[in-house]
Amino acid sequence: MSTGRSSTSTRTSSMTRPLPLINTTSGVSAITRSIQTGSMNVTINTARTRPLTGVRQGSTDRTNMSTRNNIPATTSLSQRRMSNDLTRSRRSSQDRSTVTINPYIINGAVNESSNDYLKRRESNGFNPTSTTNTNEEPTNAKASSIDRQNSHSPSPLESRLKHGGLTGLQNLGNTCFMNSVLQCLSNTKPLLLFCFKDDLSEYLNTSSTSVMKGVLMREYANLIRKMWTSSDGHSIVSPSAFKNTIGRFAPRFLGYAQQDSQEVLRYLLQGLHEDVNRVQRKPSPIKIDEKAEEKMKERDRAKLSWERCLLYDNSAISDIFAGQLKSTLECCHCQYQSITFDMFWDLSIPLPRNKSSSSVQECIQLFMSKEDLDGNEKPMCAKCKQKRRCTKKFSIQKCPDILVLHLKRFSQARGRTKLSTHVDFPINNLKLDDLTDVMSESYEGPVPTYNLFGISNHSGTAYSGHYIAQCKHPFTNQWHEFNDSSVYSLSDKSRIISSNAYVLFYERNK
Ligand SMILES: [Zn+2]
């Protein structure tokens, strides 16, 4: 209990909402796993009606996967979870006060669209202006991994895109939540470059392991290409075709109600991942020799677990966003440890309780810190053969290229509430290995540092508010603010860090 936690804090650690799996029909059902612990609840709601890429052993029956009754042997089932929703929230007094929208001083609207983009538009089947392309022939997703870009020598494509992307998105009616996420993703360099691949259609997964059969990715790429090649002088693009498509994938986004930007991000990444998943056939159920694995070195187990994940979830999207999280459950009586590994797509990190200000580093440490599992929620220890008080702890086993940090400002406890805690965060050089007990002991190689390149900001209350995005251009490194159809240059970096920050996008320093 040493990692910078507020002594008065009572945490509710929850693994809520992994990247949800959406049924082709409509509903999202939830399989819930609960790890009840003393005053803390750890729940995993796997909002999936089917596994992501096919039926994997244990994929739809994970009620016993974790610590509820038994310490060991969670690896096999936990592999199924592609996204972590390893979120830790806390019970706290929530601030319901209204946060007013910052009266930003506008530095001047951006009008940098280059005239010659249209001439150089690609004509490779992805029509930047068409919204559907149903005649595209189904092709197999490529097995190769996405090209790593060398930032030192810009490719012709990078040179071509250098002045693009400063395009506003029309608000279709309460769609600022989606627009702010789209702008952050639009400025995610590896994803942007992927969307411009000449042979993108060859990556599309039209098999049964994708609900949308490539349509979502195709629509997304069309939108991004429009945003990066728009040169009509207005630099505003309508995302309506894309919105309709994501509404087909996740019907909850069909209407025009205000939604949560982090939730739409999850659906979006899930859908795009499926659409370019290299796994196009359900793998056979895997038998895991847990006893043998327990004898392996931890780093070998982690690698094996990762490879097992890739048998199901392996795409250009997971190449970019997925990392690996280690979970350690330790019996306080016999010190027996049960270790499991999970793929994560973002980290939902809690804000410290009863503090008006914090830092993202503190929030990450809070997420990773040990928590007690006690009281009537003690897990069963396999060695003691009885319920024991245990500690549970997360740490990072593998760092993603793009690290998405979701600040858990919203809580459903006692009605929907929002925390307006000011959270400071570094724009450059977020150092994970400077933090206490955040990296796994068996982490291999140098720990990367991360630079911020996107923020989804929410201003307002839990019930009404507005989203904007602030993003660093992937080629010019200039910051801009995207407020629906308006784009502003953001020369004053002090405006980047505010209590409106909600989802942070960090890129690994190469
Ligand atoms: Zn024990």
TrEMBL record:
Which residue windows does the record flag with biased composition (Low complexity)?
A: 1-17, 127-140
One example of the protein's molecular function in GO is: cysteine-type deubiquitinase activity
Enzyme class, first EC level, given as a word: hydrolase
Q: Please name the InterPro entries in this protein's record.
A: Papain-like_cys_pep_sf (IPR038765), Peptidase_C19_UCH (IPR001394), Ub_carboxyl-term_hydrolase (IPR050185), USP (IPR028889), USP_CS (IPR018200)
From the UniProt record, list the reaction(s) this protein catalyses: Thiol-dependent hydrolysis of ester, thioester, amide, peptide and isopeptide bonds formed by the C-terminal Gly of ubiquitin (a 76-residue protein attached to proteins as an intracellular targeting signal)
Query: Pfam families given for it?
Result: UCH
Query: Which residue ranges does the record assign to the USP domain?
Result: 167-509
Q: Does the keyword Manganese apply?
A: no
Annotated region Disordered: the residues are: 1-22, 49-100, 119-162
What is the designated name of this protein? Ubiquitin carboxyl-terminal hydrolase
- Protein family per UniProt: Belongs to the peptidase C19 family.
> E.C. number, please?
3.4.19.12
The record ties this protein, via CDD domains, to: Peptidase_C19R
Give the UniProt record's GO annotations in the biological process aspect.
protein deubiquitination; proteolysis
> What PANTHER family does the annotation carry?
UBIQUITIN CARBOXYL-TERMINAL HYDROLASE, UBIQUITIN CARBOXYL-TERMINAL HYDROLASE USP2
Keywords for this entry?
Hydrolase, Protease, Thiol protease, Ubl conjugation pathway
Q: Where is the composition biased (Polar residues)?
A: 56-86, 141-156
